């Protein structure tokens, strides 16, 4: 090869190498601290634990290369300001219940819970294997977020009331705390619905600012102290049959991370999702017994109330189905729920019914 051919070949090779270098994503190097804001007051049973679990998982999985600085509600921004803080870049991540953000888009409700929606198992079936996560991602792209499920409270209780509910008319004029689309459904029954952060609920109930509230379930509710105020507790609710919690990262921040660190966020959130559900379900049975021992009356809504819940909930969905993305999410979630439920009911559902009959 003559000198000119060698130089020409070398130049082409150098240009190709340079182009390959320029085309590679530029990932931030070295240790980084990401600020995580939450919709939870520090120490709120279960929900704050889920946020902390996500943070600790990510730090451990990256061997400390990503340190997550968790700020509870009110420490950097308010509970309901977490979404905007992350989309604006004021914070890097949030952990919370996405149904707090139905004002940004009503489709966010599906990634926490919708009335007469999915149980925890049905939710993760949809999310991980039936298109749910892809739809969460499609929604997040609108707002510059990359989101994953990062916790689950299990089925939530119907709530605490100052007086017994005997029919749908008892909700007319009732001042009741309930977020998300469930709250909108109660509004259709005449309730004055309040959307309060968890850390503010006890004081509102104690002061009479609200007549009743739902929060989570026996363990978290006992920790919150609602049994000190009222003794009427409905343990089955229509509004959150399996409430998912989300870990969302500013998409520009997420894209700046290496694939290994992105995977650490995904895996850390998924582990926290399962861990948190087990935490709630492990604690709730013993807590319910303690509440009963303290004089709490365990109630179930009559069928007439359940029927009214159903009609109101469908009316709320119908109001949102004109939005193409909402309809896409709704259709996907309902189809997945129907499919999952059919098998669960005929397999484990039949088994547990027989187990309870045989073992007593």
Description:
By secondary structure, the protein is α/β, with parallel strands linked by helices. The protein folds into two domains: 32-153 and 242-282, Bacterial extracellular solute-binding protein, family 7 (D-Maltodextrin-Binding Protein, domain 2), CATH 3.40.190; 159-241 and 297-345, 3-Layer(aba) Sandwich (D-Maltodextrin-Binding Protein, domain 2). It is 51% helix and 14% strand. It has twelve helices and eleven strands. The protein has helices at 3-23, 47-61, 82-88, 120-129, 132-143, 180-188, 198-207, 218-224, 251-255, 259-293, 303-320, 324-359, and strands at residues 32-38, 66-71, 93-96, 145-152, 159-161, 175-177, 192-194, 212-213, 232-234, 244-250, 297-299. A six-stranded mixed sheet has the order 7-6-8-5-9-11, with helices on one face. Helix 8 (218-224) crosses helix 10. The protein is globular and about 60 Å long. Mean pLDDT is 93; it is low at 1-24.
């Amino acid at each position: 090869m003559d000198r000119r051919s060698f130089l020409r070949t070398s130049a082409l090779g150098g240009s190709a190498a340079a182009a390959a270098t320029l085309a590679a994503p530029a990932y931030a190097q070295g240790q980084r601290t990401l600020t995580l804001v939450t919709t939870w007051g520090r120490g709120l049973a279960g929900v704050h634990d889920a946020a902390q679990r996500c943070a600790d998982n990510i730090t451990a999985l990256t061997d400390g290369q990503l340190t997550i600085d968790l700020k509870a509600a009110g420490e950097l921004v308010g509970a309901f300001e977490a979404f905007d803080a992350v989309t604006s870049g004021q914070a890097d991540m949030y952990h919370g219940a996405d149904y707090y953000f139905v004002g940004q888009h009503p489709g966010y409700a599906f990634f926490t819970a919708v009335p007469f929606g999915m149980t925890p198992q049905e939710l993760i079936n949809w999310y991980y294997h039936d298109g749910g996560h892809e739809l969460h991602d499609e929604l997040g792209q609108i707002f510059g977020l990359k989101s994953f499920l990062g916790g689950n409270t299990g089925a939530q209780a119907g709530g605490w009331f100052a007086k017994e509910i005997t029919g749908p008319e008892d909700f007319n004029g009732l001042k009741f705390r309930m977020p998300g689309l469930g709250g909108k459904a109660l509004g259709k029954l005449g309730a004055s619905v309040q959307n309060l952060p968890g850390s503010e609920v006890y004081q509102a109930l104690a002061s009479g600012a609200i007549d009743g509230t739902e929060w989570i379930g026996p363990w978290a509710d006992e920790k919150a102290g609602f049994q000190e105020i009222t003794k009427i507790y409905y343990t089955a609710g229509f509004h959150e049959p399996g409430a998912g919690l989300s870990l969302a990262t500013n998409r520009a921040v997420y894209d700046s991370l290496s694939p290994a660190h992105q995977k650490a966020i995904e895996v850390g959130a998924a582990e926290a999702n399962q861990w948190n559900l087990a935490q709630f379900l492990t604690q709730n049975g013993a807590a319910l017994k303690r509440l009963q021992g303290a004089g709490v009356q365990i109630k179930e809504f009559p069928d007439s109330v359940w029927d009214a819940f159903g009609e109101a909930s469908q009316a709320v969905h119908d109001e949102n189905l004109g939005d193409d993305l909402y309809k896409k999410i709704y259709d996907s979630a309902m189809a997945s729920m129907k499919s999952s439920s059919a098998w669960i009911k005929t397999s484990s559902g039949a088994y547990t019914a027989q187990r309870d009959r045989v073992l007593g």
